[in-house]
Amino acid sequence: xxxxxxxxxxxxxxxxxxxxxxxxxxxxxxxxxxxxxxxxxxxxxxxxxxxxxxxxxxxxxxxxxxxxxxxxxxxxxxxxxxxxxxxxxxxxx
Length: 93
Hints:
Helix content: 25-40%
Shape: elongated
Largest sheet: 2 strands, antiparallel
Strand content: 5-15%
Distance between the termini: 28 Å
Number of strands: 4
């Protein structure tokens, strides 16, 4: 979802350059990305996906009673957050 927000942010930035009316839409995708990213790196006692000791993102199983457990499986899923990268050229007006 973070990668999706970044892709939509790129599209929004291009639209905003042509028509400044899109700035609010673009800023909404920035906000959503930051919310997703902060949810992934919550401290371990709150059930975040990042494991500081292992240096890896794990899936989290959230139980109905509020508890959460990390599923300590090293898979491609743990590498996907590293793909969420956006580069903006300095030539924007």
